[in-house]
Amino acid sequence: MKLLVPFELEEKYKEIGREIIGENNIIWFPEKGNADAILIRSNDFPRDREYKMVQTVSAGTDHIDLASIPESTLVASNAGAYSLSVAEHAFALILERTKDISGFRRETKGGVFNPKPTRLLYGKTLGIIGYGGIGARAAAIAKSFNMRVISVGRGHRDRNSDEFFGLEDLDKLLVQSDYILISIPLTKRTFGLIGKREFLLVKRNCTIVNVARAEIVKREDLLDFVDRNKEASYLADVWWGEPNLDGADRENVVVTPHIAGGLSGEVMEFAYRSAFENIKRFFDGKRPLNLVRRDEGVYLERQRLGV
After folding, report:
1. Which uninterrupted H or E stretch holds 14?
2. If you average pLDDT over residues 19-45, what whole number do you get?
3. Dihedral sign, CA of 294, 295, 297, 299?
4. Segment (H or E) for 135
5. What is the tally of structural domains in the chain?
6. Is 307 contained in some domain?
7. Highest mean pLDDT among 67-71, 199-203, 264-268
8. Residues 60-81: b if buried by 16+ CB within 10 A, e if exposed
9. Which of 9, 23, 144, 245 gets the highest tally of CB atoms within 10 A of its CB?
10. Based on the domain organization, do 52 and 197 belong to the same domain?
11. Strand partners, 26
12. Are 234 and 222 in contact (CB under 8 A)?
């Protein structure tokens, strides 16, 4: 079986592909040819034949027009490939805000020595919306701070979450959490999941961290919430209409430029290895991991693509 890679790829990532799939089984850009599977990064990929499998480099697939891919083609995401980096980034955001590192740095660089109280994570409750790879890794980190963890997830469970809920019981998580981590995929069911009604349930000093997709939260409702509740915080690696950051200039809002997945070679080596291994799994006659549920898919044209 043959794999088509229709984009320029660094040699170190090609070596991973050769190791897993074999040089003779891969058609590298700019070469073309008949292939059974294709590895894609964006919605711009050759559609001149019906592939048996489409594998994304990204964990999310909301930037892929699934309707343009035949129903008979298996589409697999790269879910889990960026979990370590994204979970670490989520806690970097939480710690930065909890300990006000940027504020102290700004003051001390200006010659101002002004000690102020900071907060503990110890004993606080972290609510995780989306207990997949990112959520589970974040829960493990939270346990090292002796936090209580509650979570919403579809199936995966482990001992790091003290309590599990279904999405239909999201309210139970919202009312209890001091920190809320959004790490759930963007689907028809989760689009606009958090809005005015949900913001009325959360604690007034709640810290909400979004490392998933901006559209899971209703923008105007979020901005109204942080404007009315100055002790609350919204920390995000995603924003509506990226790279446009309109509305992100609030004092209690912190935004990073969609880099939680990591732009470093070590992260991408792991991601490409994961993608190539899933394609090899398919070539070996096994069912690929992370198959996309088309009935839940959402497609949004994006100026900038994250993981």
Report:
1. helix 11-21
2. 95
3. positive
4. helix 133-144
5. 2
6. no
7. 199-203
8. bbbbbebeebeeeebbbbbbbb
9. 9
10. no
11. 3
12. yes
Structure tokens at 149: 């963890």
- The DSSP annotation for 155-199 comes to S---TT-SEEE-GGGHHHHHHH-SEEEE-PPP-TTTTT-BSHHHH
Does 234 lie in the same domain as 99?
yes
Tell me, yes or no, whether 35 and 159 share the same domain: no
Domain that holds residue 16: 3-80+264-296
In degrees, to the nearest 5, what angle opens at C-alpha 203 toward C-alphas 194 and 184? Answer: 35
Residue 151 has which token pair?
Answer: 């979570």
Q: Give per-residue pLDDT as tens, 269-282.
A: 999 999 999 999 99
pLDDT at 19: 98
Q: What tokens were used for 85? A: 């980096």
Angstrom distance (rounded) from CA 164 to CA 217: 21
Are 24 and 146 in a shared domain? no
Three-class DSSP labels, 40-66 = ECCCCCCCCCCCCEEEECCCCCCCCCH
d(CA 163, CA 127): 10
Structural domain contains residue 159: yes
